[in-house]
Give the backbone structure.
Amino acid sequence: MNTIVIELAKEEEFDSIGTLIVSAYRDLLGSELEEPYEKELLDVKTRAQVSDVYVAEVEGHLAGSVTYVGDPASPLAEDFNDHEVGVRMLAVDPKWQGKGVGKALVRFVADRARRDGARSVFLYSLEEMKVAHHIYEDLGFKRVVDRDYLMDNGRYLLAFTLYL
């Protein structure tokens, strides 16, 4: 496997990051990716103003991205517990999936959380994201069923926590 480089996203990458995220989610969800959420996924600039957006590059190509939500007061925070940070909009370009990019991004977030003194990392994942669920479990995340969330559209978000 080639080296995966993870670093803070640059403003000039925001459009490409948004496109990558939508591509990854659309690859999984197809026409079920709703327009309001697609707009939110594309709006990397707004996310970067309230959280840290990271990119994973392989051979100089944008391969994935993740948003690290370290502040429970952030508008991106999803009912965090005390001393908890979160993962949002984790995505890997479909052509780079299965090559360790997603796992590298999750490890990066966990390492950052430890450095920040967090006690846990929390995330929601759509039921359909089964490959991602395996990555989370491989890295020590536990399902937290009592934190699952039923969205307005009738779909469930599954809750996962990594205790540090």
Remarks:
- The radius of gyration is 15 Å.
- Strands lie at 4-8, 52-58, 61-69, 84-92, 120-126, 142-143, 149-150, 156-163.
- The helical segments are 14-29, 35-42, 44-50, 101-115, 130-138.
- DSSP finds five helices and eight strands in the chain.
